[in-house]
């Protein structure tokens, strides 16, 4: 039940561990939906990219810049397909493209399993969260950037029983594959090998 990194931070004489990696990216870092307090789950870190985990993702995004078409980050839980922006209720100019790809995933999952996914911008569908990886990837040049929030289960929603793993993996793959197909339609020069 841990969502943060494990780096120790001292706050008011107390040691608290980790920053929320999904508040640690350097795009509207530490604005709305993030905290300066190391002892809370949405701690943005002492500076953008203070965490090794986010530096690795940043470096990979920059390595793939100009070649990568879609960034997909998978979280839990809530049955959402979200796209930028997370730092504001405003939408990027190309939001219809983002919406089309996300809806392709949600529609495919619904048709195959009956599971409903809510689709829209992070702030407008879920909550405001500045410094997130999907916003950063979109800002860094990936034309499609989506956060997929998986179904929940168990006592807290974050601990589904093992008996649900196959179902969740199957429907997640259905959505990912449908989104990838839609991306290939929109950007035909890129064709992932798994299609």
Can you walk me through this structure?
The protein has 195 residues and is an alpha/beta fold. It has one domain (8-186): Zn peptidases (Aminopeptidase, 3-Layer(aba) Sandwich), CATH 3.40.630.10. Helices cover 33% and strands 15% of the residues. The chain has helices spanning 52-64, 95-113, 122-125, 133-139, 165-186; strands spanning 8-11, 14-17, 70-76, 80-83, 118-121, 144-150. Strands 3-6-4-5 form a four-stranded mixed sheet, with helices on both faces. A two-stranded antiparallel sheet has the order 1-2. Helix 2 (95-113) links the parallel strand 4 (80-83) and strand 5. Helix 2 packs antiparallel against helix 5 (165-186). The longest helix is centred in the C-terminal third of the chain and has 22 residues, at 165-186. It is globular. The protein starts with 7 loop residues before the first strand and ends in a 9-residue tail after the last helix. The relative contact order is 0.18.
Layout of helices and strands:
Elements: E1 8-11, E2 14-17, H1 52-64, E3 70-76, E4 80-83, H2 95-113, E5 118-121, H3 122-125, H4 133-139, E6 144-150, H5 165-186
Parallel strand pairs: 3-6, 4-5
Antiparallel strand pairs: 1-2, 4-6
User: What is the CATH topology assignment?
Assistant: Aminopeptidase
Strand order in space, largest sheet: 3-6-4-5
CATH architecture descriptor name: 3-Layer(aba) Sandwich
Instruction: Report the biggest beta sheet as strand number plus sense, adding barrel if it closes.
Output: 4 strands, mixed
**Secondary-structure element order, as H and E?**
EEHEEHEHHEH
Count of alpha and pi helical runs: 5
